[in-house]
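B., you asked whether I could sanity-check this one before it goes into the benchmark set. Here's the sequence:
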Amino acid sequence: MSKRLYIGGLPYSTTEEELKEVFAQVGEVTGASIITDKMSGRSRGFGFVEMANDDEAEKAIETWNGKEFGGRTLVVNEAKPMGDRPPKRSFDRDRRPPRRF
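And here's what the prediction gave me:
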């Protein structure tokens, strides 16, 4: 079964093809994607790689986490499902002080 990895700290110029090539050095890559800003289309500096199996995914984490790539330090770990993340911090109307006129 494939395992999805989160890749943070990517140089903004990194392409999906480069990401695939880098992680293919440690195992079979079944997919790679770089997250882009919806408005500008520019990279947001992180992406995801799917490795063919758990062993190769662990090897990729050990090999690339904390290593320098393109002048930036990578953060590589197992991607968390969307529902398992803490909620985004947002402005909380109930906690702000009352307005004074």
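One thing to flag: The CA atoms of residues 10 and 45 lie 5 Å apart. Otherwise nothing jumped out at me.
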